[in-house]
Specification:
Chains A, B: Catalyzes two activities which are involved in the cyclic version of arginine biosynthesis: the synthesis of N-acetylglutamate from glutamate and acetyl-CoA as the acetyl donor, and of ornithine by transacetylation between N(2)-acetylornithine and glutamate. The structure is a homodimer. Chain A is of the alpha+beta class. The first copy, chain A, is built from eleven helices and 16 strands. Chain A has two domains: about 260 residues, 4-Layer Sandwich (L-amino peptidase D-ALA esterase/amidase); about 120 residues, Ubiquitin-like (UB roll) (Roll). The interface between A and B is large, with 65 and 65 residues.
Chain lengths: ~400, ~400
């Protein structure tokens, strides 16, 4: 975690306050305001039970001209029916009133327990207070205000020179449990002071999420509330509008890096996680196939408990590869490596493999499992963590 | 578990011996012999890394005229390459020699650790001993000999009168971890003394497995070694050869019951399981959709840890329903019941629901979660268990 504080993004101000949404002593409500002309793009959960704020945010973002984001921790406002929608709208109206904008210019986000109504009055009381405390310096507090079972804030930043100008990129995220491809109780906010036209920003957020948050897994569950928001304030950086320019490539690379750093921080802080493992699949016939195998390995409870035990139980790796539903997989073509140690050769135990060598890799806090399917040229990777006693404890006791 | 011993099935003899496949003091090798004319059908794992004995058994069963089954616990002979195949064949040959039959008339099965070669000599030494100890009374010892992480043997039996004759049905199974639809490290052997023509038996085993073992889930993993075998000795029961007869219906019902009883016993003895939960999905547009939702709920680690905690965290239930990938699911049509307690009504918390009522259900060792999708007339059910500290312990320490 960075000890230094995150830089300001001209055009963007933040305030974190304690709305006492749960019985805790901490900030749990974050207000972010954007300059006029800022562009905003977002991706949202694909869970059919998407939360009320997701429904409202999707509606509001369609109109563009977003001027504020409101994020609360401690209550997801999900599975709360019509009243949930009304509560989310009431929060937007309160923000609008405090900032003299329209309710439709506010995007609401919530994370926390599902199925309980928002303690609306607490939010309505806290919103005007937050509106008086806005500051460009608020990113670090913001990263803490959105946490739920996270044990630490997740932040990333880059400063890059593009077309002779300094461009700033800052990101914050929260994650922990329920993380899975296609978004999860994962909230991420990335902002740059560069100006990026809306259509390009829309494309960029999808690409960045695909390369980062959609490649991580904590427990295979996907939440009702996930969202990843990318903001281009344009308040001080250059206008970068040509998709085929070197400038765009450099900006995109830096923004994707920030997303990946946040996504990896979420896995490393997975509920109860003690290991950070990259699962690479090579030699696949297609990218889809490679990802399918990578997720099957990375999400198998038997693999994840073996990771926790630092037990190079490679039988569970081949079991998981075999379960991925790859058509006509020839197991005798499959090789598996633990970092540089070959453990499976042609579908069986590699001749030179020793338990000691495998154990040495599995004992490390971070390592890579590489599966070569031997049937094509495509490769993909994901990041996962182990399944520990602590995971069960956290999730068995979450509401108490 | 039944205190009484299982009945004999005329035509079938068994012997369990200690081959010391692992460093344990127990029987771990089971030999079953069948009378001439017995019909045998089986279903096998769909894992692409199917174990060597599965490959050999599939080959042998195609020729029919099976006269013996050999099952060992402690070593799966999976991911063991060509040598694994040779080892499985050597075991079949040893059985053949001891019984004066052909190697192709023997079906081999193994369960245990993946990726280690069979301690072949130990099996070859034990097989002739087993062949001298065959008895019709061996079912109870057999159920114990095939256990791995199972904490208790799984048995079921029925005695039904069909066409004026007594028909006997006996079944044994082993399961515990790695249980998932489409078969898992699950071995089941069901036998009847009725005579059933091969084509009808082939159909019957598929129907029985579909109604039983393919509806259970411990951890969502599928093993390399699963097999379910149905034997009709025909040695004393009636010939039941007409699929449309009332006699066949009665026999089928009893055989399916034995399969379901064994499947449920496997879930109840799931690794670390403390709860037995039926997940019913009603109002689905198709059976596939209903099963997909049922498994999404029954396999979600977040749902399973909530079951363990006896925490009626119904937010996780709606999260799982929303994740099932049902096309155009209208969450406002979804109702959920915990036994008879309605917890979700029209996608939100039911008006009359109280935490106390939900808690009372979740505190029971067995209960039913019913999801009504409100979009059709199809319904399906599965059986699952919780995810406990003990699950992590067992799977983190399995090889040590």
């Amino acid at each position: 975690m960075p000890e230094t504080s995150l830089p300001q993004i001209p055009g963007i101000r933040l305030a974190s306050v304690a709305a006492n949404i749960k019985n805790w002593q901490r900030d749990d409500l974050l207000l972010i305001t954007l300059n006029e002309g800022a562009a905003v793009s977002a991706t949202f959960t694909q869970n059919a039970f998407c939360a009320a704020p997701v429904t409202v945010a999707k509606e509001h973002i369609r109109n563009g001209n977003i001027r504020a984001l409101l994020i609360n921790a401690g209550n997801a406002n999900a599975a709360t029916g019509e009243r949930g929608i009304e509560d989310a709208r009431s929060c937007c109206s309160a923000v609008a009133e405090a900032l003299h904008i329209a309710g439709e210019q506010v995007l609401p986000f919530s994370t926390g327990v599902i199925g309980e109504h928002l303690p609306l009055q607490k939010l309505l009381d806290a919103i005007p207070v937050a509106a008086t405390q806005l500051s460009g310096d608020g990113w670090d507090s913001a990263a803490r205000a959105i946490m739920t079972t996270d044990t630490r804030p997740k932040t990333a930043s880059r400063l890059v020179e593009i077309a002779g100008e300094q461009v700033r990129i800052v990101g914050i995220a929260k994650g922990a449990g329920m993380i899975q491809p296609n978004m999860a109780t994962m909230l991420a906010y990335v902002a740059t002071d560069a100006a990026i036209p809306q259509p390009l920003l829309d494309e960029l957020v999808r690409e960045a999420v695909s390369a980062s948050f959609n490649r991580i897994s904590i427990d295979g569950d996907t939440s009702t509330n996930d969202a990843c928001v990318l903001i281009a304030s344009g308040a001080s950086g250059p206008l970068i509008g040509d998709k085929r320019s070197a400038e765009y490539e450099r900006l995109k690379a830096a923004i994707v890096e920030v997303h990946i750093e946040l996504a990896q921080a979420i896995v490393k802080d997975g509920e109860g996680a003690t290991k950070f493992v990259t699962v690479k699949v090579q030699g696949a016939a297609s990218s889809e196939e490679a990802l399918k195998v990578a997720f099957e390995v990375g999400e198998s409870p038997l693999v994840k408990t073996a990771l926790y035990a630092s037990d190079p139980n490679w039988g569970r790796l081949v079991m998981a590869v075999g379960n991925a539903g790859v058509d006509n997989l020839d197991s005798s073509q499959v090789d598996i490596y633990l970092d540089d140690v070959q453990v499976v050769e042609a579908g069986g135990r590699a001749a030179d493999y020793t338990e000691e060598a495998g154990q040495a890799v599995f004992s490390k806090p971070e390592f890579t499992i590489t599966v070569n399917l031997g049937r094509g040229d495509c490769s993909e990777h994901i990041w996962t963590c182990d399944f520990s006693h602590e995971y069960v404890t956290i999730n068995a006791e979450y509401r108490t």
